[in-house]
Amino acid sequence: MTDTWTCALAVADLFEDSGVPVILHDRMLALFLVDGQAYATDAMCTHGAASLCDGFMEGHEVECPFHQGRFDIRTGAATCAPAFGALTTYAVKVQDGEVFVQLP
Ligand code: FES
Fold first, then answer.
1. Distance between CA atoms of residues 7 and 85, nearest Å
2. CATH number corresponding to 14-89
C-alpha cells in the first residue's frame, strides 16, 4: 500500500505558539509551525488522554498540559518524564499555501 498525501489546512491557519488539531482519515493529528516549518504528529499524548494542541511550545518541543511530559515534534521522541512513548510523526509538505500530510 502506498502512502498518500492529504491536504490538511492552509499554512495561514498554523500558529508558531500552539498546535492545531486536524482529523485526517480518522486520525487525530496536531500540526505545528516552528520557524516557518510545518510538522505533524499524533495529537494525543502517549502518557494519557491529553491533546498536545493544548500544550505549551518551546522551540521544537511541546509540553503536555496534563503532567508536563515533553516531546520533540520533529522526531516524536519523548524528552521528559512522565512521557516515555514516542509520538508518531508524519511527513509534511507545503504546496500552493496548503499543508499536506503523508499518511500510511
Ligand atoms: S497525559 Fe501527557 S504527560 Fe501525562
1. 27
2. 2.102.10.10
| Stated pTM of the model | 0.93
C-beta neighbour count of 55 within 10 angstroms: 23
Please name the residue whose Cα sits nearest to atom 1 of ligand 1: 48
| CA pair distance 98, 69, nearest whole angstrom | 30
Alpha carbon of 4 to ligand 1 centroid (Å): 30
At 15-39, the pLDDT tens digits run 898 999 999 999 999 999 999 999 9
End-to-end CA separation in angstroms for the chain: 8
Report the mean per-residue pLDDT for the chain: 95
Enter the C-alpha cell of residue 3: 502512502
- Cis preceding linkage at 82, omega within 30: yes
Q: Fill in the amino acid letter for 28.
A: M
Question: Which amino acid is located at 78 in the chain?
Answer: A
